[in-house]
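Journal club prep, notes for RB
We'll compare a predicted complex against what the paper describes. Inputs for the NAP case:
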Amino acid sequence: MTYQVLFTIFGATGDLASRKLYPSLFRLYKKGELAENFAVIGTARREWTHDYYREVVLQSIAELITSDHEAAIFASHFYYQSHDVGDAAHYETLRRLGETLAKQYQTQGNQMFFLAMAPHFFGTIAEHLKSEKILTGAGFERIVIEKPFGESLETATKLNDSLTRVFSEDQIFRIDHYLGKEMIQSVSAVRFANQMFESLWNNRHIDNVQITFAEALGVEDRGGYYDTAGALKDMIQNHVLQVLSLIAMEEPEVFDEAHIVAQKVKALKAIKTYTLDEARENFVRGQYAASSFNHKEFAGYKEEPLVAADSRTETFAAGKFEIDNARWAGVPFYVRSGKRLTEKGTRINIVFKPGGSSLFEQNLETANILTIYIQPTEGFSLTMNGKKLGQGFEIEPVVLMYRHDSAYLGNSPEAYEKLFLDALKGDGTNFSHWEEAKRAWELIDVIRAAWDEDASPIPQYAVGTMGPRAAHELLARDGHFWRWTPDVWYRERGLL
Ligand SMILES: NC(=O)c1ccc[n+]([C@@H]2O[C@H](COP(=O)([O-])OP(=O)(O)OC[C@H]3O[C@@H](n4cnc5c(N)ncnc54)[C@H](OP(=O)(O)O)[C@@H]3O)[C@@H](O)[C@H]2O)c1
């Protein structure tokens, strides 16, 4: 299918636009999803010419270009309009350019607005799109926005109100780029297409669930933003809870957006809302400290550029969620996310209960584990028990592995590209919906409040570890342990 559409990108001179948006549009163009009938208006305050803008677009897609001719035609669809989003008069210029391009490229009144800008501008932009009659209702009109969606339930609600005054929920596409990843989308396939898993997917057979979003990098040049957010808001509120809801939801009657979202929301609502005391007990935080790892010296978080020297922002968060429903009562969902950890990796471990046979010694060490790898490799593995080769009858873990490096699979689309295409199709399944974001904030606000009340020093952790000791104690208290411990591998080799 080839789409007819006019894109308007607010924040066209920024980092997100050139790192993600232009390359994704180019990939869709190469695949024929976009052809003659599309145009892009890029807008930001800087005074750029169309030609200069096209050069920037070409640079951002340099690695993907296989034909200069093709790339030049693609770039010719891009137009730049200098514009301050707070200035109503500028929307008039934008509207006129849009009308001209809609005619020239026959885009049938279809419009997509991508807001690659700070969220405090979203309301103003949406209101002006309406008041300055850029929205006409002639074709589909959709707005795509990035995280963060608010900083608390209160600010998220305000943000949502300002958007829904202009757009309906089915026109709003809130990006959570993890939801564009192949294996996240496959979680439901692994669950529901395999009788052997779905029949065991409950508290009679599952002991605990572990979700890890680990990053090896620090805050890099985004310290200014990160210091206002922290791991809890930056990762747990959105990506981690999205994944958790996919694991925990009931099987939707029909596999479409409405049914899937309804089940995810139900799962999120079944998560226990902690009191302040419970939140303090069940969630821990940490900050990476100046340390050496793998023979290299690293600055601590508080020494990073644009981070306050007395910052109390956490670069690591771990905790336990409990779900109050028949399927999950008694099964802890442990989550953790942090920066400067041992290695980059997003994975889910479903840890099954030890078997009942008295023939072997069975305990949590020998549990079956289904691991879903999300990045940097994708796939899944199943840890089972087999007989140790040789004399005797000892059992040992055997891992059945299906895992590949997505980067080597040329045909595996990048998360953003997939999400862009979904938005063009009007399919919001892999986007975050307001009811999900709202519930996630309710859960997170309590943890944040508990931490804000607590003036004790923020636990520090050394670069290259998997977070502070408290994150291990959290599981040990329940007789559990983290199943993925790359730090052990490093420690055994004297690297930590
Ligand atoms: N970068 C990422 O990988 C990433 C990842 C996740 C989420 N996000 C989110 O995406 C959004 C954009 O991030 P970014 O990294 O691209 O930020 P950025 O590089 O700072 O870009 C911001 C853009 O907004 C424009 N802008 C600022 N004030 C403006 C105004 N008054 N009127 C018109 N344009 C204005 C800037 O251009 P001018 O200065 O020319 O006006 C620039 O194009 C943020 O909300 C961020 O949290 C980014």
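Talking point for the session: Residues 11-16, 19, 44-46, 83-86, 116-119, 146-147 surround NAP (CB under 6 Å).
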